[in-house]
Design goal:
Blueprint (H helix, E strand, L loop, with lengths): L2 E5 L3 H13 L3 E5 L2 H8 L5 E4 L8 H11 L3
Amino acid sequence: MSRILIIDDEQQLVDLLASRLAAKGHEVITADNGIKGIELAKKQPDLILLDIMMHGMDGFTVCQSIRETVIC
């Protein structure tokens, strides 16, 4: 199936989403902060679930960085 990247700093939510998506046959990769998320986005996931309000780098900044560095 598809590869899904979850970028969120709330581990309980990430675990819940990851387990549900994996149970449906998706490959799930996760990052608990924006820096890791940007690196994992280089693996070209089919979908990115991105939290907007995170500590450190917010989701808007992560999204902009992915657009500039990964989706050229």
